[in-house]
Amino acid sequence: MDATTFVLFGATGDLAKRKIYPAMYNLFVDGKLPQAFSVFGLGRRELTDEKFRANVEHSIRTFSRRQPADGSSLNAFLEAFRYSVLDIGRIEDYNKLLQLVEQREAALGADPNRLFYLSVGPEFFETIASNIQASGLSSAAGWKRLVIEKPFGHDLQSARNLNKHLSRSFTEDEIFRIDHYLGKPMVQKLEILQQSNPVLQALWTNRHIANVQITANETVGVEERAGYYDHVGAVRDMFQNHMLQLLMMLAIHLPNHNSTSDEVRTKKKKVMEALEPLFKEDVAFNVVRGQYAAGEIQGKAVAGYTSEPGIAADSANDTFIAAKLQIDDYFWRGVPFYIRTGKRMKEKSTRIVIEFKEPLKQSSQKNDERRIPNLLVFEISPNESITLQLSTRDPQHRGEFKPMFIDFRSDSHEVPEAYENLIGDALNGDPTFFAHWDEVELSWKWVQPILDAFTENLVPLQTYAAGTYGPAASDELLARDGYRWQFDA
Ligand code: BG6
């Protein structure tokens, strides 16, 4: 792998601590970091290299899925880390950083390939990108890459502005936009499973599939992020990015060979282009907007959203969204995709359920016969599994159908974290599981009428008790079409 200098903005932040350092450590243990590898952690706070390394070690001991067996391998890993104080707006600090980076690269005899990881608020992206360029940090002979985290904009217009600014310093091929749902191993498996199983390829159409249900429920509430969350809501925080990415990954049809990243991203773009647009006037019929009220989660009483610290008592922010979407193409025409995501739900669960049609239903089924639909279920987190639900008759009670499950489960300790996959791919320059600008733009475009309808109050805000599956209107969205959310207890 190419020698790499990893320049991390926001090195003392929460994401670095919880996700980035543990991911790097696991890549190191698996021999997936370059031989010549340096990390320059940057932050506003003064820190010595020793203190910085102690912080990185603490993060690994607290959050890594694998723990260091002995001190020496950990020390070898920490040896790569250095720290510099940097004020994001001060070009002098970037000039100083460039000298340090060049010295280190010369000492390692390494080519100057540089990855700039912006683990900071999006309001700083433009300043950092242009200072990287102005200081010459990005003009070395090797490659350069920019890794940024969502949110990419606040709406269609701001996303376009942001992209315009970033593209003055980095080309599209050099920008790696992290949507951590694309790093989840089960989401990545969706592509491989479809490509390598003719039976799935044959089934993946409106001839056999009745509907698709995509759920990302969380038990946590707004936590300490009131300032951020109250301005974005579930629609921007989860729906515009993670949920639409899940939809794209599920709905793409890939050729029967190992696809290139270009093929995958082009097919995803096609899915977004085929998504039937929603007009502002139709949002209320197809989208449910919810907000949690007080309730109980796993035996513990929790406050309602508007009683959370930092949230105004009259906030109309959405903490839940459910929507019905349709893809108007040859494969999916007529198959509803139901998507929902919410905070303070009954359980933490991200899953995709594919419900198959019952071709013989009308002709053979007696009215009182309760058949169980065939389902293919991808559990994405917290546990990973794939289950095929078939139907059989209970020998004890002849005539009664009961579900039979064919199961595949992963051992969660063996499964890499999303960030391991993504950082490894960014180091390798593989953009397959990063969001291309076209996808981001099309997602905002699709979501914009929902944002407008929410702002203009065209969609009623439904409250739901914490610890439930969301507002009743979410069940009605499916019931209207003769379906129900599968696996809601
Ligand atoms: C983040 C959102 O992108 O994803 C959070 O900002 C949310 O609000 C989180 O809690 C959920 O991620 P996961 O991996 O726990 O499902």
Automatic annotation (TrEMBL):
Coiled coil: none annotated. It comes from the Bacteria. One of its GO terms (biological process) is pentose-phosphate shunt, oxidative branch. Its EC number is 1.1.1.49. Substrate binds at residues 180, 184, 218, 237, 343, 348. Pathway: Carbohydrate degradation; pentose phosphate pathway; D-ribulose 5-phosphate from D-glucose 6-phosphate (oxidative stage): step 1/3. It catalyses: D-glucose 6-phosphate + NADP(+) = 6-phospho-D-glucono-1,5-lactone + NADPH + H(+). NADP(+) binds at residues 10-17, 44, 87-88, 150. GO terms for molecular function: glucose-6-phosphate dehydrogenase activity; NADP binding. Belongs to the glucose-6-phosphate dehydrogenase family. This is Glucose-6-phosphate 1-dehydrogenase. It comes from Paenibacillus sacheonensis. The lineage of its organism: Bacteria, Bacillati, Bacillota, Bacilli, Bacillales.
